[in-house]
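Morning run. Coffee first, then this:
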Amino acid sequence: MKRIFRYLLVLPPAVLCMAAVILSHRSREPQAVQIPASTEADRAAYLLSQGYEGEQISSRAVRIPQTMDGAYADYAALQIAQHLPLSDYAGERAVLYTYALAESGLRAELLTADGILIGAQCYVPEDSVTLGMNGRPYHAPAG
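And here it is:
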């Protein structure tokens, strides 16, 4: 009888601890950051923070797709990995700025809405390889 009583005392706290651990891991999804991007100085500062200097070569209004699938899925996954809030702007209007990055031959695209950066990528103009802002090729996780 003492053994059963001992288990009854230990089991509930153990179950609560396990539940707390499981729930805390679920809530650790990356939180999107709010990077100012309403001015040319803001965007230049962001590029510099990523190790780049560049010159804006174009800008255009775009609409973010309502669903992040198809050809846009990898781009959306990159933004999640970079902690940028692209998915919060599904279906919204945005401005896409393109920069020629000094001394690298790369281009950078900065996507902005409501004065914040919501997407960013680098790429080689002659190639279709998408790079994260760290300059490394990005491959979305399988699944």
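Helices lie at 2-26, 40-49, 73-81. Good start to the day.
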